[in-house]
Structure formats: structure tokens, C-alpha cells
Amino acid sequence: MTADPRPAPGLREQKKNEARRRIADAVIQLMSDGRMDISHDVVADVTGISRRTIYRHFPDREALLSGASTRVRELAGSRVAFPSRESDLLDTVPIYTGLDSIAPIATLVRSTPQGRAMRKSQKLERQESYRAATADAVKDLPEPDRTLATAMLQVLHTTPWLEMRDHWDLDGEQIARATAWAIRTLLDDLRKRGGKPLDL
């Protein structure tokens, strides 16, 4: 076993990371409690962390929600991340089993207005990531088909978890198997169709 080449964070960095985690965890808990008034003031009240510190880490509400969204992915496991290449789209087992491991939080994120706002706070980052991961597969398509195909691959990559869990009683491994098949099928179709529009 080789040692991790990255240096251990110093005490100051550890404290910053811990504060960010506490703030993000508080946002997640407030959402779990059904609170609609999530703000820097509310987070300061429940954590005892000063408003100034919270603003330093998360300068606006969008950043606060984005931090919570990142924290949800951390809780689900280190392999739960936005994809950067096509092979990441097919590596769905860690994603779906990760979501299983935090099922109450993952359900909240995907089924409540607060959770949707949290996910939308990273909309541009998500779009950029999936465009990069699908670039080669969709490169010959005309627009807007390139965007449509990328959006569908993104939906298949993470979104089916709640529906397939709730309506079919499937677990993460089963959902991963089904979604990987669907993604492979679409990628194969994209390769074969070349530049033909999606409706041909």
C-alpha cells in the first residue's frame, strides 16, 4: 500500500473544512425539518457559527445550497461525483448504492422544493460536466439534438433512483444495472447514427 502523496491539511484548514461541513449539514437538516426559510441567519442560529463565518464560506444563498449539494454527494461516497468522461456514465453502481446508503437524504433532495433548489444551485456545473462527458458521443449531432441527447444521458445517470426504488422496490445495484444498460444502448445508437437527427 502506498502512502497518500497529498500533505495532511494543517489545523487551520481542518477547522475551515469542519466549519463548512457543519454549515452544510445544518442546511440538510433544516431541509429535512421542512424549513422553507433557509438563510445565513437561520444556519447561524442552529449551528452557533457566526453569520460572518457563514458568509465567508458561502457568500450567498445559492452558494449555501450548492455547499449542501456537494455535501450530499460526499455523504453518498467518494465515487458519487459529476462525470468528466464517458466511462463515468457507465460506472453507476457506486452512485446508486451510494444513494441507497443515504436514502432519506437522497429522497429529500429529489422530491422536495428545497431539495430541487439545492440541486439547481449546481445547474451550470452539472451541465458543463455532462457536456464534457458526452462530447465525443454527440459531436456529430445537429443542435438542438446534441443538447437533447446529453440531457437524456444525464437523466439516466442519476435520476431514475427514486422512481425505480419507490415504484419497483429495486435496490441500488439493480438500478445501476438497468441504467447502465440504457446508457450503453443510447451511446451505441449515437455512434451508429452519426449526424442523423434523433427522430430519424
TrEMBL record:
Domain HTH tetR-type: start-end pairs: 17-76
Keywords: DNA-binding
DNA-binding region positions on the chain: 39-58
Domain of life per record: Bacteria
Name of the protein in its database record: AcrR family transcriptional regulator
Organism: Azospirillum picis
